[in-house]
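1st attempt posting a full record on here, be nice pls
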Amino acid sequence: MIHYDRFQLDNGLRVLVHRDTSTPIAVVDVMYDVGARDEDPDKTGFAHLFEHLMFGGSIHIPDYDEPLQRAGGENNAYTTNDLTNYYCSLPAENIETAFWLESDRMISLAFSKKSLDVQRKVVVEEFREHYINKPYGDAWHQLRELAYQVHPYKWMTIGKELSHIENARLDDVKQFFFKHYTPSNAILVVAGNVETEQVRVLAEKWFGSIAAGVRYHRSLPPEPPQTEAKKKEIRADVPLDAFYKCWHMSGRLDERYYVADLASDILGGSASSRLYQRLVKEKKLFSQIGCHHFGSIDAGLMAIEGKLIKGVDMRVAEAAVEEELDAVKTELPSEKELQKVKNKTESMMAFEDMSLTNRANSLANYELLGDADLMNTELQKYKDVSAEEIRNECIRIFDEKNSNALYYFSEPTSNIKL
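the predicted structure (as tokens):
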């Protein structure tokens, strides 16, 4: 059981406090309710660009890292399609340094052409290194475009096109900041050797005077049900042929999410899963294969992806995958198999809770979902999933009309035509 207190400042900032006296450390986590799904389709990659800009200094503090390091702290951040998160850890007695730093860049981020030029160059290089020059780097760019017609999940966090970041202007950046980086659109979690009243005083002191801003209410176009299978081929200079296939599934707040999550583990969540055991170890069609999903807040994607053994025909490999999907749609998973993935889920959740940083981040995530107490009750939702629910959800998801397949061929060694 993770204990926490919750209160809200007059400007809308939601504050959660998790006290842990077993550590001399404190974690300060600030989560903003903005991700890549909130971007203009013609100006994508801004949420991720902003993650970098937030470390470029504020008006009063030109270097974010230097004072934090002097206080014995360290920090990091990440961006997803759904949210942006900044977190730091430092000795609990120096916690006010983190409040000072986070509040100052919330209210007075330094907007300069120099900072934008520097961070834009960093993001452009990241785009080139991981998504243009890296083998298979464009696979999920291609798959998202194939799978989504209207929902902004159709582009990745890095952005839809390199030019969107290259052409980002200072005015565009300012508009994005003032729209999303406000107390009413943020969650502050403080965890560690702290007292709730201490956090309340510091939150009021450093964040209380910041204008609330206009609470952002998104109105995104819902993705319509897919009614026909979609397929695409790519030929490139990559080491091996690769198979990607994805299906639409329920979002994070749907009760069916927990069923689909366990189904993905049964199919391809580990080396003991069905796909790996049968298609890698027994049939030797793939060198690696797995099943996963993105855990997105809105309706997301379940995916199977793997690298083929050299010389294996793509059609043979896909047929073998479909055979495994037919099996999971017709036969109930055994009690042993279902219990195994439930145990794995429970152990993973317990392992994550061992880290103070993870606990703080999880509390922020659950609060963003609308119910921080899910941190303590969600495990039961997994325990309640039945074998019949697994089968029914697999029937629902793995409908061929709901599928999107990407065949990634190694051009030098493959001339297969589908």
